[in-house]
Amino acid sequence: MNFAAPLVPGRLVRRYKRFLADVIIDGESEPITAHCANPGSMLGLAVPGARVFLEASDDPKRKLRWSWRLVEVEGTLVGIDTGQANAIVGEALERGRIPELAGFATIRREVAYGSASRVDFLLEGPGLCFLEVKSVTLSRRPGLAEFPDSVTARGTKHLRDLAAEVARGHRAALLYLVQRGDAAGFAPAADIDPTYVEAFQKARAQGLEALCYACTLTPAGITLDRPVPFVGATTP
What we know:
Blueprint: E1 8-16, E2 20-25, E3 32-36, E4 51-56, E5 66-73, E6 76-79, H1 84-94, E7 106-113, E8 117-124, E9 128-136, E10 138-141, E11 144-147, H2 153-167, E12 171-178, E13 185-188, H3 194-205, E14 209-218, E15 221-227
Parallel strand pairs: 3-5, 9-12, 11-13, 12-14
Antiparallel strand pairs: 1-2, 1-4, 2-3, 4-5, 5-6, 7-8, 8-9, 10-11, 14-15
Helix pairs in contact: 2-3
């Protein structure tokens, strides 16, 4: 997935109100306000002074011209835009880059299902596979990616809806997309949201398929790269 426009580097001043960030673009003296498309805590990412990369838009309907796309953490680029995760995975599915999910005739996006939910992808023919994607950015130990970075009641609900589809005889999968290139392993963050991790373990025991893939990130774009193993108590 390529960015629509070349990214512009800068330094983060602050992130606030969840969806706003003040950034001083390289060569400028006054900060601009950029949209931050990440509802999570962004633990370890929104550090004042961090090198960030913004994408500009010329759409006159947009309230903010700039969007925050990447941040550099200890030499590693991290994709902070959770909305990009589905675009990255969708591109990979269409190109057959995810062997565990290859061979379906059609790929539909944002399909209503479960208890007033929408699944990110519905793969059809032969059979059905309900696929939910989660963007992963948290890393508190070198090489270990974690999810979630804050309590996520919505994520817990998705797990229960996916498990219900398995009970109905369908396939259901959860793909953790690690939007950073330094991940050697993945583990659910039980200390941050034990309810989510309990629901995750229960759903897996009921037949939910769990996948984890890392990305290659550059200022030009983000692409799905390689599978990442689960570690700890949640090892497949």
